[in-house]
Design goal:
The chain is an alpha/beta fold. It folds into two domains: 42-135 and 233-269, 3-Layer(aba) Sandwich (D-Maltodextrin-Binding Protein, domain 2); 138-225, 3-Layer(aba) Sandwich (D-Maltodextrin-Binding Protein, domain 2). It has helices at residues 7-24, 75-87, 101-106, 166-175, 189-197, 208-217, 245-257, 260-269, and strands at 47-53, 56-57, 61-64, 71-73, 89-95, 112-113, 127-134, 138-143, 158-162, 182-186, 203-207, 221-225, 234-239. A hairpin with a 3-residue loop joins β2 (56-57) and β3. The chain starts with 6 loop residues before the first helix and ends with a helix. Bound molecules: arginine.
C-alpha cells in the first residue's frame, strides 16, 4: 500500500494529523471558526472546514493507534485530504455517533460529512450530497456457520443495526414481513460486533465493504451479501444549499478520471 502514497499525500496527511491532534484539545473549532488551532502553523489564507464523521467504519474511517497516537484514518479521510488539497482548505475531523452527523450539519457544527454515508431520498430533505464515490451492498453478519443468506433467514432472530443508518431503516422495513425478527439499534459498529460475538444478537446488517474487514479480524464471524434496493454507496453530505457541493463534485470527478480514486480503493479495500 505504501507504493501508492505520493509525496503529496504524505504531506497532506501530516498536515491533517496536526489538525486532528489540535482538535482533540476540545473546545476549539466550530464550523465557522477559522483561527488556527494551538500548535499549528498560522495559515491565515487557508479556510478551515469541519469534517464530521463516525470513525467506527473501517476502512472508510477508524481510529488507528498503531503509531502510539490516536489518529482517524481511512478511505474517506484520504479522499477528504485530496479534495482539501485541490480546493485549498484545511479541515479538522470531528468524531461522533453516526446518528448525530446530519443534525451536526444542520446545526452548523460541521461543513461536510464523510462517513460512508448513502444519499437515500429521506436524507435529501436535510442535506445536499455529492455524487456517489464508492458503492457497497448490505450484508448479513453472523457467527461462523450460521449461514444466514437472505432476509427470510432472519425470522425469529435478534438483529443488530447501527442507529440512524440505512441498514436500520431497511431492517425495520423487513421486520414488517419477516416473522419475529427483532431489531436492536446500537451507536457503534464495534458494539454490534461485540453483541454478535457474545451471542446477545444473532445477526447484524452491515455493508459488505465493512463486514469484510471485521470478519477478517474476527475469524468467528462470517458475512453474506444480500441484494439491496434503493440507493447504495457513499457520498459526501453538506448542509442544504452549501456552496461546496459543485467544487467537491469536480474534484471527485477528477479523481475518477485520473485514477486517484482507484488507487485509494486499492489501498483501503483490496488488502
Ligand atoms: N451507508 C450507511 C448509511 O448511510 C451506513 C454508514 C455508516 N457509517 C459509519 N461511519 N458508521 O446509513
Amino acid at each position: 500500500m505504501k507504493k501508492f502514497k505520493t509525496i503529496m499525500t504524505m504531506a497532506v496527511t501530516s498536515l491533517f494529523t496536526v489538525a486532528v491532534l489540535a482538535g482533540c484539545g476540545g473546545g476549539q473549532g466550530g464550523a465557522d471558526q477559522q483561527q488556527p488551532a494551538q500548535g499549528q502553523q498560522p495559515t491565515a489564507e487557508k479556510k478551515k472546514l469541519i469534517l464530521a464523521t463516525s470513525a467506527d467504519y473501517p476502512p472508510y474511517e477508524y481510529h488507528d493507534t498503531s503509531s502510539g497516537k490516536d489518529e482517524i484514518v481511512g478511505f474517506d479521510i484520504d479522499i477528504a485530504n485530496y479534495i482539501a488539497n485541490e480546493l485549498g482548505f484545511e479541515f479538522e475531523v470531528k468524531d461522533m455517533d453516526f446518528n448525530g452527523l446530519l443534525p451536526a450539519l444542520q446545526a452548523g457544527r460541521a461543513d461536510f460529512v464523510m462517513a460512508g454515508m448513502t444519499p437515500k431520498p429521506e436524507r435529501l430533505q436535510n442535506a445536499d450530497f455529492s455524487v456517489i464515490y464508492y458503492d457497497a451492498k448490505n450484508s448479513i453478519v453472523a457467527k461462523k456457520g450460521s449461514n444466514l443468506t437472505k432476509w427470510e433467514d432472519l425470522a425469529g432472530k435478534k438483529v443488530a443495526v447501527q442507529l440512524g443508518s440505512i441498514q436500520e431503516g431497511d431492517a425495520k422495513e423487513m421486520a414488517k414481513t419477516v416473522q419475529g425478527m427483532e431489531i436492536k439499534s446500537l451507536n457503534k459498529i464495534g458494539e454490534i460486533i461485540q453483541e454478535l460475538k457474545s451471542g446477545r444478537v444473532d445477526a447484524a446488517i452491515i455493508e459488505d465493504t465493512v463486514a469484510k474487514g471485521y470478519t477478517q479480524s474476527n475469524p468467528d464471524i462470517e458475512f453474506n451479501t444480500i441484494p439491496s434496493e434503493g440507493p447504495s454507496g457513499s457520498a459526501v453530505a453538506f448542509p442544504k444549499g452549501s456552496k461546496y457541493v459543485e467544487d467537491f463534485n469536480k474534484v471527485i470527478k477528477k479523481m475518477q478520471e485520473n485514477g486517484e480514486l482507484e488507487k485509494l480503493v486499492k489501498k483501503w479495500f483490496e488488502k
